Amino acid sequence: MIKAKKSLGQNFLIDQNIINKIVNLINIKGKNILEIGPGTGNLTKKILEKKPGNFIVIEKDFNLVKLLKEKFNKKIEIINDDILNVEEDSLHDNILTVYGNLPYNISTEILIKWILNINKKKIWFDCLILMFQKEVADRIISEFDTKNYGRLAILANWRLKIKKICDISSSCFTPKPKVESSLLLFEPKINFVKFQSPKHLEKITRVFFMHRRKMIKKPFLSLFNNNKKLASKLGINLELRPQNLDFDTYFKLTKEYESLRS
Ligand code: SAH
User: What is the distance in A from the centroid of ligand 1 to the CA of 30?
Assistant: First the structure.
């Protein structure tokens, strides 16, 4: 028997309806798959039945790696590592489809890391299917003028099309987590605003959202050298709060910030 490790956020998906739903979202046959945090292999098994091309899994827990080796033998490539330490675009020459039911904090961290790294090379995935704590998923899919809107939504929407698949009840996992989950599907956008570096978008949103309830006047003027004219040129009312600016406005601000620096 495998005893779930709390420290590694181990909540194994056991609801077969949900597992089937996940593997039927896209046509897996012949696709190169990366699964992160496969755990005891519940989802892995179903993915395999769909006859993928190359199939790589990355699991941090050595005990689970042993178990996965026994279960799947040579059918999958098993990497025993922390996903946060893996250079994602070194994984495979061909584009990957990614599945992940990871600990919630890692899902968010990895999503942001991957988005910020995209610029470096050609895009290495065609689809990400990831599990999040429901509240975090709500933030990722939020629109401006709502209370959930913030950096996560802006960064994710810059480069990815996002679709919420469903909420998943905590009773679909064992051990049962304390929170509800949601499954999101991401695909790279074809048209998106090009930046010198997405780190600049990250910085702009970080500074703007430092104080969610305050007017944007202070962060704006500090980032743009007190240039009030720029605000009127961009049609931005400096008395608004950070959540009142839509995605495009944050992208425009980032472009302005980059031209100021270059
Ligand atoms: N996907 C499986 C397991 C979910 S539990 C399922 O749905 O049943 C989360 C899994 O992620 C565990 O197996 C845990 O060991 C693994 N994990 C946790 N942190 C990780 C990390 N940083 N890198 C890779 N795997 C990790």
Answer: 24
Find tokens 């490790």 and name the residue.
5
- Gap between the Cα atoms of 91 and 86, Å rounded: 8
The reported pLDDT for the residue numbered 122 is: 78
Q: Is 168 in the pocket of ligand 1 (CB under 6 A)?
A: no
Alpha helices (H) in the chain, listed in sequence order: 16-23, 42-49, 62-72, 104-117, 134-140, 151-159, 198-208, 217-223, 228-233, 247-261
Distance (angstroms) between ligand 1 centre and the Cα of 236 equals 43
**What would the two tokens of residue 77 be?**
């490539």
pLDDT of residue 120: 63
pLDDT tens digit sequence for 214-226: 999 999 999 999 9
| CA 194 to ligand 1 center in whole angstroms | 33
Rounded distance between C-alpha atoms, residue 174 and residue 10, angstroms: 8
Q: Candidates 44, 45, 102, 114: which one to mutate for ligand 1, based on the most atoms within 8 Å of Cβ? A: 102
pLDDT digits 0-9 by tens, 108-154: 999 999 999 886 667 899 999 999 999 999 999 999 999 999 999 99
Q: How far apart are CA 97 and CA 126, in angstroms?
A: 6
Tell me which DSSP letter residue 4 carries.
Answer: P
**What predicted TM-score, i.e. pTM, was given to this entire model?**
0.96
The CA 9 to ligand 1 mean position distance, Å, reads 7
Contact 247, 144 (CB under 8 A): yes
Q: Using the predicted structure, report yes or no on whether residue 17 has a pLDDT greater than 80.
A: yes
Q: Which ligand 1 atom minimizes the distance to the CA of 10?
A: 5
Determine whether the shortest distance from the Cβ of 221 to ligand 1 is under 6 A.
no
8 CB near ligand 1 (under 6 Å): yes
